[in-house]
Amino acid sequence: MLPLKCLAKLVTLSLLTLGLPSISSGQLRVAKVFQDHMVLQRDQPINVWGSSSKRKRISITFNGRTYTTRPDKQGNWSYTLPAMEAGGPHLMRISSRKEAIMVSDILIGDLWVCSGQSNMEWTVASSNDAKAEISAANDDQIRHFKVPHSWAKTPQDTLAGGAWAVVSKETVGNFTAVGYFFARELRKHVDVPIGLINTSWGGSRVEPWMHPQALSGYSLPNLDSLQQAVQIKNKMKLKELEAKHGPLAKKDQGLEMGWHTPDCNDNQWAKLELPGLWEDKGYEGVDGILWFRKTIELSEAEAAAGIELGLGKIDDSDWTYVNGQKIGSNIGAYAKDRVYEVAPEQLKAGANLIAIRVEDTGGGGGIYGADELLYLKTIKGKRSLVGTWAMKIGEATFKAKAGFRENQTPTILYNIMVHPLLRLPIKGALWYQGESNANQSGAYVYREQFADMITDWRKRWKVGDFPFLFVQLANFMQPVPEPMPSHWALLRESQTAALDLPNTAQAVIIDIGEADDIHPRNKQDVGLRLSLAARRLAYGEKEIVYSGPVYKEMSKDGKSIVLSFDHIGTGLVAKDKYGYVKGFTIAGADQQFVWAKAQIRGKQIVVWSDKVADPKAVRYAWANNPDDANLYNKEGLPATPFRTDTWPE
To answer: Do the domain assignments include residue 42?
Structure first.
């Protein structure tokens, strides 16, 4: 979170209030996205809007000019400023008779909306080479606004919250990694400020991001009945938890009460076996703050040399203490391995207390991961910390599932995480989502839903067919020895189908996924490939190669099939030291695919198999994890997975 001095400033009479740019009396307000350090879209009319409880004239002073407007009968006001060139920083003053809101350090540049599920929400701090990336972050022309997780039954005019942050070593770790690396690459070629609006939610399907009218024919749930079921289940579960643990605090007082110090007696605390999410250990649905404590014994030599603590993965955030002294913290890094060095001056011979304050904002929470990640390392070797830890709830809320998940329910994320942004002109959108739709019933339907969402967003944003750049699903899960149907491959095909829409591009990343992790850590190449597409579609670099080979057409040549491609750049290449092309399968009329041989012949690929005398169809990289697919263009961009058939999967 930004320090208060970095948030929008509000002047009401002679009183300065820090926080969101609204006043304590609630009379004059501006949309929550208007805060210090924001980025406004260049070369587009600039909408400014808000509300006021009094129908007094409102003045907006910006970039040397003053404009006036009045609220309507409902108290809502708006004004459209003329389009402006890139530049800044600027100050915006919004005032009525006795009130004023000041928003400072505004840049005019290009604004990109970053949306989707966890791979878009994934932070720089949890990506490859995080320490080096954070240490090198110094471009204050890149700004980031995180829309908080929120939902609403109907379209809202106001965001639930959020704040702008300027790139720095202190802030960039919490940026969307895909968005940040995209912006960083763009800044090497486009000398304008870049703003990123990060409106994403891990685990979300595409349907929650769609307006009801874009989901025509889709059966929408009865939210009222779902909420009633949730409320009933919540009350029952809360009673069970409080019967077991006493009243659940609404505010954590662990630090005030010294739960991080050796002086605290934890004999009466609950006991929990770690590693493991507390959701799986009797605390299903609990979010909030839980404390964990464990005492370790060190010899004099071990204490004098210092130690290393491996604490596994912690969902979502941790503040870790040894003997009452804070040794480290990671915020919002739910998939990051925690490894902390503890200096000799923080240790002593004999008993030493480890205390971990864990905050979970939703879903599973706790200290989890493989047993070997939970350890103590001293000069005498490594010891396991797996086993019983003392645990106490510091602050808790409860969310029952009861068949209702906000990030799975149609339209309700759009209503408050997208709709309030529609008045803000943008340069384009980045989208990374699809994993949650890659199931048997959703993978094929996705092609219609995704295209409908893109079309609907463009219609409602009213800035034309803005560039819509999306990331295709990475390779994931264990490779299979023989060709077989794949829902992930079908979902990738559905994503590729959206390229039929104008001004769209796809970043193919089947070469940088991880078999055991749905969240690839290499977000740098994702951002780079998206930036190539942006440079072509949004910034008009006509000669740039921004896509790998894309299947165009096939022809038959005896027992072989010959494939032609678009986007071959300066030529096709196989990334294999022997030059073999891999990842192709072939089938005859029986629709039984077998592994095929393939060869590059100029600008085409010839595919065949001795097992198929009369081939009818070819597939490439058609698997959950096509780990051997190795067709690229010479510019280093991977070929898009495809099939030439339309046979049922």
So the answer is: no
